[in-house]
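look at this stuff:

>
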Amino acid sequence: MNINNNTRANILNEALPYIQEYYGKIVVVKYGGNAMLNDELKQAVMSDIVMLSLCGIKIVLVHGGGPEIDSMLNKIGKESKFINGLRYTDKETMDIVQMVLCGKINKDLVDLLHSHKGKAIGLCGLDNGLLEAKQLSVDLGYVGEISKVNPEVIFTALDNGYIPVISTIAGGDNAYNINADIAASRIAAEMGAENLILMTDTAGVLEDVNNPESIIRTIKVNEVPLLKEQGVISGGMIPKIDCCVEAVRRGVNKTNIIDGRIPHSILLELLTDLGTGTMIVKGY
């Protein structure tokens, strides 16, 4: 695509007020879904994060890794089992989850950011008691419910110019597997983040599920119950919206559910007038 100089200048001018708005503020990005599996999308996400960091925006990257966990479990002949959308995690599965999330995926992401000239450091919820949890349910095994967030180590990384890359294993009386959306929401709230962004494999909340163009751009927290009742918010979107609502109620200024299948969707959301996906805000 050929872009003339005026168009380039207009793009930069449009981004400027948003860079000023977010400068020095914390944005927590939950990274998962297809954006983790597609190499082109992965490279775009990493370059976006490095660019935002160089613009003075404090990015905290929280990641999942379900497909890679499934792949490793398959290699050892262990079947993945889910209960109400949460991975059943026995002791052997927990060892695999910790190895894949805190080891391979986390360090691969740090290395990718480094390849884009970013300054990144890998962390997990076990580091300096970052995430503490208790067992969510006996039926789920080593799946945890966060009881405490201690973000000191994240602040230290940010203050030293690093992009923290966080895998969601929590400590406590045992190591626990934590849903990455929930972890990102609690971390954002505890850090007083300006924004929480959840990258998904959907365009956002759709008024008509059969029309991908029917994205609801903004939802107020007090509108969520009615949208659930109407079936507009349903299925796998419910827990994501609940994470956003919880973050806003705990003090995060705004939250966004964006389509990670679109290259540079983070930049489009943060630095353009139109944005992308669905934004959840306080509203009364």
The two ends are 44 Å apart (CA to CA). The first strand starts at residue 26 and ends at 31. Residues 222 and 284 are 6 Å apart (CA to CA). The chain has ten helices and 14 strands.
